[in-house]
Sequence to fold (574 residues):
Amino acid sequence: MTEPILAARSVVKSFAKGRWQGWKRQGVRAVDEVDIEVREGETLAIVGESGSGKSSLARILLGLVPPTSGEILYRGRPIEALSASEKRVFRREIQPVFQDPASSLNPRMRIETTLGHVLARHGLATPATMRQVIAERLESVGLTPATDYLDRYPHQLSGGQQQRIAIARAICLEPKLVIADEPLSSLDMSVQAQILDLLIGLKRRLSLGLVMISHDLNVVATIADRVAVMYLGKIVEAGPASEVLSRPQHSYTKSLLAARLTADPRLARQRAGLA
Amino acid sequence: MTVGVETREVTAAPTWIRSLWTGFRALMRTGAGRTGVIIITALALVSWFAPWIAPNGPIELADKSLLPPSRLHLMGTDNVGHDLFSVVLYGGRASLAIGFYAAAIAFLLGGTIGALAGYLRGPVEAVLMRIAELFQTLPVIVVVLFVVAMLGSSFWLLIGAVAVAIWPLEARIVYGQFVVLKEREFVAAAQAAGLSTSHIILREILPNALPPVIAQVALDAGLATLIAAGLGFLGLSDPSIPSWGEILNRGQSYLDNAWWMSVFPGAAICITVLGLNLLADGLNEIFDPRSSSGTRLQS
Fold:
């Protein structure tokens, strides 16, 4: 079996909050002893309701926020032990897509500049080829013709277009793993389907690994190979998607599945335990 | 000209000069901003061109002392016999320059400290922001009195003193902006792409942090002018350079028989501060996304 590209080992993140107790304030554990791993090309879905620590976990996995304890392993090595050049590869291979597309693009930067900075940082384009490379990457996320977008500012685009740009910024670095934190939930229903299709297509075409953080079990069922269910900062259940979604073991997973939206009212009543 | 046309102009040539021009035009559409720009421009021009406008030199003896305003001496003459109109014009140079330089230095110093504190957080934040608070508690006048007593008075010393008094204001506002913007997802995305800290501070956060800071700088330039005039009034300004505060200092002995010596430089100070405050109001209005002109600038 291949080595996981990214793994979390007993990761804890606590935030000081609430009452002072002597010298220390009571900590709230947003992420509590989490162990997960993702292999190349695999899609891991992390599900849970809002406030269950999913977004904190995403920032820790990206190496943006240090965990209070535990460690993140990139190809088997703790990320703080990486050398400068290894860190640079890590920063190229693991890329984020965030929930709010309006906030994930710099409002005062043209689209071309936003993508240009990251491409230049990793030497993926020279000044001469830059515009061409950016245009190709934009077209690969369905923004055609790319010339319509290069000189725009984010606020001149729709939410769906902004999210496509954010995805283009992530995949333009040819990453191995994309960590998508609720990438659909601030978009309209119809746009959600388009972006989901785009992610599935990219995953297939680039054999991309994906950590999909979501509260929408319908989305998870469509895209995930494995599912980890997060509740109050802990992973309460994990396993292959088909298994977790059809034979949930933990009561929290069962209630999540019961709350899932369906077009069939009879099925909905049945799931809610009313029929 | 319609709004749609402007939007396209910005899209076509999005250089910083173009956005500056768009911002300026939005500013000129706000009542306060337009008035402020006109007042400050007029004062700057009149001071700059003082040698051509003023009937006499700033230290040239023009007539008998303490003559009331007349057609020959628009603002009368001072206790020495200078033409007060000329001295006020030349004095504007020093007063405006002190306000401008002090605000600029305070912005650079306070902005750097606020940005570092807001970006790095943790112990750096604790130390830098406590230093800023310490400086806010210092009574400026006393500090300057002390420094002048030690080192003697000079133009640049006065600017330094005023900058020391107001930099914590800039530090606080830049700090507040950085704390908020640092958590935004575009910053996280830049960090995740391995972009350097200097890139993130200067290119990602700073351009978004600046609008409210610029308005604050305009406001603080007014404050700086006021503090500088206050120091001049107390006799702490460089006596060899005419300034409004310095005229006020000499005028206080003649308040009951030569009102013009206090009223004209006093009015000049009031107009300057008023102009800068109006300018700051206008800037606040165009940068506020909730105002109608703010929406115009954004779209």
Notes: Chain A has a mean pLDDT of 89.
